[in-house]
Amino acid sequence: MSTISIRKYASENGALAGLVVLALVIAVMQPAFLNAQNLLNVGVQAAVIAIMAFGMTFVVVAGGIDLSVGSIAALAAMVGALTAGPIGLVVGALCGLVNGALISYGKLPPFIATLAMLSVARGLTLVFSEGQPHETDALVTFLGSNLAPMVPLPLLLMLAFFGITGLILTRTNLGRRMYAIGGNEEAAKLSGIDVRRQKLWIYALSGLFAAAAGLVLAGRLGSAGPQAAVGYELDAIAAVVIGGASLSGGVGRATGTLVGALVLAVLRNGLNLLQVPPFWQQVVIGAVIALAALLDSLRRR
Amino acid sequence: MKTLITARGITKHFGATKALDGVDLDINAGEVHVLLGENGAGKSTLVKVLAGIHGHDAGTIEGHASLAVIHQELALVPELSVAENLFLNRLPRRFGFVDRAEMRRRAPELLDRVGLDVDPDAKVRDLGIAQQQMIEIARALDKDAGVLILDEPTAVLTETETDRLLQIMVQLRQNGVGLVFITHHLDEIQRVADRITVLRDGRSVGVLGPKATTRHMIELMVGRPIDEQYPRARQRPGQPLLSIEGLTRRGAFEDISIEVHAGEVVGIAGLVGAGRTEVARAAFGVDGYDHGTVEVDGKPLRRGDVQAAIKAGLGLVPEDRKGQGLVLTATVGQNLELVTLGDRDQKRLHDIAGKLRIKGRVEQPVKELSGGNQQKVVIGKWLLADPKVLILDEPTRGVDVGAKVEIYELINRMTAQGRAVLLVSSDLPEVIGMSDRVVVMAHGRVAGELPRGATQDQVMALAVQEISA
């Protein structure tokens, strides 16, 4: 491999290199990290954020942001618990559609539209639940369970959503249009892309993925809580950014986001194993996010 | 004559590519020194090395004169006032607060030096691009810059604004300022240059005097003899392919009727602000209009519907290549397939890239290409869509001479295939040289139409005429 291709490989997989280094450091300091059961746990812990972050990847690649995914996840899980899982998914996609409509046709900045949805969806969750957690039905509980010993379904779902995200981004017209819209919305418009309609679908997808993440979360816990997934949108954005996507749009990949979500999960798990107090964990995670973004910005220079 | 800056043997690498290769340059007081070269020849890199933005790998730079660069992208704060921008970074202060009175007192004197008559309290955002440029020049002069480098300042200016800028350059020259002037407009060079350094592939290939001919300049730039600057090959016009009838948008353009036939190139000339781009965008469905009709090959287009326009066989290469034409974060290939996303035929994509002689691989990020090659990508994405009519809005703006001729050849090839081309251009020799007919717009109306072979004077006479409403 020539120097140039090594450099290209490293620059495209900076997050992956970071993940490997992180895992090695933790493994050296606490060998129990490499325990198979622990590694599976890390995967399961990553699953919810990862699925949410995959949906966020579409939005970010298209030059937007979705702050409502945590609330949508909670609302979808609650509706799923009160009625049936699939209805939760529909509600999630509908919330996303509303976001898309406010942004496309109402011409609201994505930050504002989804900030409003963050509040509305959380409020509806509280209203429907009357402030109480509700047990999930068998189907949703199954989503959070093990398919067989050592085969947790959330992990498989994460991989399935990873595959779907990669396919959408690289092999569909919608995906290619996301890059065009995020890279230069005006050029996309002048090339005959119906930007407004595409945005509807992009935010609907994000809502749908958030709903799926919410159901997986509720399945693992066996119940949907009114305060579930608070603040998850920030983890999802962090995962996307650690994965190398640009918040100014046009750049981002499914692999990057997967790695980003794994970095967050490995870090949390490692800090627990190393018995770092929870308050300090937040500080470390924040520092790592800043570091990842810094490295990325240095690399691009 | 006093030499302000002496650069010798400047060499600069970017990775494996040699951007500058042993370039010598003298900047003298009271002289306009033109840097000429195709895009990618190393002009901007040289400027950045001189200004200390880039380091250099070999060579020496000597001189004490302070140096200011006016870049193409202006470094002004749009939300601040003219005066605040003039004194940005060294605002006069009194008791620790900004001394507005002092600022207002000193601003007019500075504005005077560049002949600018604007209210110092006006927001920069509300000024035209030419005025903004003058403010930057005034700011540079206030810092007592002995050397002023102007990087393609006229690319965004109208004819009159350009005249004004050239006048000011001449005036600054008389005051002993050393000027370095980068431009693609050869006529401007002939008007102000004292010396011309021609760069090609990072090397200085010649230093010419003020009497250099256009032909000589071009041949040095491209490194080979040039046959003809505007190689238009006329076709016998066929049936009308684009018919714009009575198109009107209040406040922008009124009663515009233009017909373009198969095999024909119709030019639209006029001053900036005459409404040419607005008409092009409205016809293509980007913006709406109040009344009138647009037909492509006899099929009426729905107002404000770009998708329908494309389906009917219309294409638009917009005036702002980076802002409207390209997705800079994407590759050449991804840009080429933008219009034709539905059928992803890799072979046609490579074919077109080869045919257009795009220098660069299909997988390469489009931002790494030179301006001319980028423009070929924008045109290429439309050729893939196989349009009947292509509207080209300023297709050669910021494009070097070699690529310009290639774009003209593309226009010839399109019309030879029976397509129609509507050519909007502020470059008078170009619009006259490449069009079969020229429609001149003024104040949002069609001021007149001229046959092939019209002179620049005839076009200008129509373009500046006052039309009674």
Would you mind describing this structure in some detail?
The complex is a heterodimer of chains A (301) and B (469). By secondary structure, chain A is mainly alpha-helical. Chain A has one domain: ABC transporter involved in vitamin B12 uptake, BtuC (Orthogonal Bundle), CATH 1.10.3470. Chain A is built from 14 helices and 4 strands. In chain A, the strands form 2 sheets. Chain A has a two-stranded antiparallel sheet. In chain A, strands 2-3 form a two-stranded antiparallel ribbon. In chain A, strand 2 and strand 3 form a beta hairpin. In chain A, helix 5 runs antiparallel to helix 11 and helix 12 crosses helix 13. The radius of gyration of chain A is 19 Å and the shape is globular. Chain B has a 6-stranded mixed β-sheet, with helices on both faces. In chain B, strands 17-18-19-14-20-21 form a 6-stranded mixed β-sheet, sandwiched between helices. Chain B has a 4-stranded antiparallel β-sheet with strand order 13-12-15-16, covered by helices on one side. The mean pLDDT of chain B is 87. In chain B, helix 12 crosses helix 13. Chain B is globular, with a radius of gyration of 24 Å. The longest helix of chain B is centred in the middle third of the chain and has 16 residues. Chain B has 469 residues and is of the alpha/beta class. Chain B folds into 2 domains: 220 residues, 3-Layer(aba) Sandwich (Rossmann fold); 224 residues, P-loop containing nucleotide triphosphate hydrolases (Rossmann fold, 3-Layer(aba) Sandwich), CATH 3.40.50. Chain B starts with a strand and ends in a 6-residue tail after the last helix. Classes of the chains: A mainly alpha (301), B alpha/beta (469). The interface between A and B is medium-sized, with 21 and 23 residues. Chain A: This is Ribose transport system permease protein. Chain A: It is a multi-pass membrane protein. Chain A: InterPro entries: ABC_transp_permease.
